[in-house]
Amino acid sequence: MSDLPSRVDINEEGPREGFQIEPGPVATADKIALIDALSATGIRHIQVCSFVSPKLVPGWADAEAVVAGFAPRAGVDYTALWFNAKGLERALAFRDRLQVTGSIALAASELFSQKNLNRDRQGNIEAMRKQTEAHLAAGVPVTRIGVMAAFGCNFAGDIPVARVLETVHDGLGIAAEAGVTITDLGLADTMGWATPDRIERVVGAVRSRWPELRLTLHLHDTRGLGIANAHAGLRMGVASFDTTVGGLGGCPFAAHKGAPGNIATEELVLLCEEMGIATGVDLDALIDVGHLAERIVGHPLPSAALRGGSLTGFRNRAA
Amino acid sequence: MSDLPSRVDINEEGPREGFQIEPGPVATADKIALIDALSATGIRHIQVCSFVSPKLVPGWADAEAVVAGFAPRAGVDYTALWFNAKGLERALAFRDRLQVTGSIALAASELFSQKNLNRDRQGNIEAMRKQTEAHLAAGVPVTRIGVMAAFGCNFAGDIPVARVLETVHDGLGIAAEAGVTITDLGLADTMGWATPDRIERVVGAVRSRWPELRLTLHLHDTRGLGIANAHAGLRMGVASFDTTVGGLGGCPFAAHKGAPGNIATEELVLLCEEMGIATGVDLDALIDVGHLAERIVGHPLPSAALRGGSLTGFRNRAA
């Protein structure tokens, strides 16, 4: 049953996910310091900001200043997030510093789309058709589909596997109409419903239908099962994960307070390295960045690995 | 590969593990309130105190008052921990309220024994021979072996599987000399070195050599892998786990500060129930007890499930 990858790609989203939910304002210089520190750990993909309305997300009013301010490091891809034409336009101003690629974002739960985007399934498909056209017209490649609420939904409850497959199919239809080829599929546990067996079922069904798609799991540690879910993904051969250093962040749209962040980067790196799966990341350097993130937000972050530390020091002293 | 149990036994150790490491004094009445609240959740095994030297562990100076004070509930076993003849004597005074059974406690790391008990492997075997004799002389059954540091050690580093097997063999030798039959084996990740693949290797090796022993895993969430490790145990057919409500506690002897507690009872119960494995525990009632534990210690506990909550309410509202 096990199909462990030999190498895992980490998509660090701490700078983007982490600061949008923090109650206090985070200084632009601190956001830049975190990005620069992450760049030095061996991580090769960092999402640095959201180009969203400052009215809706005041924490990202300084997105431009952050992107202009960090020090790009060779070999590291820097990305951003946006949801509409205005956001795309803001991202395009930084094509020299950001890897600007488009994504077809859908939800496996229609109720989730309705509550958060005020769009039903068909309305969402229409919106993504238009967004894909806009991306392509701007010369932005669209190679990825993202499926939110792929493992369950606070509004709709359990999500059947068939519904996830339909949603991917919807996305592939949008891509085919636009004449683009999808290479990447992200499955997001937006509200923390995943369990290891749900990961196995969904990933297994998606992989057997579309073996050519490279899968990324976006997991939240809402109920303490995040790393167990990542491990289930690894066992199914998933080799790409969205994570946040320290477990920063959370989904501000979830229907309960205190939604915790994504799985912590250092916990996933520790798991992988201890299992002999390469990540290219220096775990001890990453843990130092986690402590920097704690100083920036001014409170402890949920990651246990930040407190437990790596096993390297113990091993070296024992040898 | 998967050999999931249909039912899992939870051994709740929060009252015992949780309060020995808290910096402030915890009122006797609060300890009793926690035990009584746990008794009402469906948990059937609760370790209520340590009979240890009040000089070494001041937090358990009130062990007698706690045992005398809780309200025993039919169908629930209450146990205690002790390490020497004096502790055994104190436990024996409560045979009407406690299930008094003996354990042969060994460590797979000789360095761990030396650092914590000032005994080498042979010295520990001698001590356990004497303790087993003392238990049997007092009419206390000895049916269990416990192996500490079974997955790694802060002093000795990685622990070979062969060393764990030798340690179990040592314990079985002590039992055979004393003429008792061992039915239960506890494997403890005392310092948080376990990973899912180490769990598979150690549990697999132990099970193939001694398939008749019922295994219990005692896991700490030192580095965020605790529930992933428990899931690996479940997949190997392990059906008994030591846990603490809220993730209370920690090992005061570990060689680093801030050693986090055991895996959180409510996270394991949530995982099991979502996977269709019965625990007999009312998860929502248990989460309420976790919040009670937080009020008692006066700070948030590490369990994410305490904040995320169960999925029951969402599912009911969605239905």
Automatic annotation (TrEMBL), chains A, B:
Keywords carried by this UniProt record: Lyase, Metal-binding
Pfam families in alphabetical order: HMGL-like
Every Pyruvate carboxyltransferase domain range: 8-287
GO molecular function terms attached to this record: hydroxymethylglutaryl-CoA lyase activity; metal ion binding
Single Gene Ontology BP annotation: L-leucine catabolic process
Organism superkingdom: Bacteria
Listed PANTHER family: HYDROXYMETHYLGLUTARYL-COA LYASE
Family, similarity comment: Belongs to the HMG-CoA lyase family.
NCBIfam families hit by this protein: PRK05692.1
Stated name of the protein: Hydroxymethylglutaryl-CoA lyase
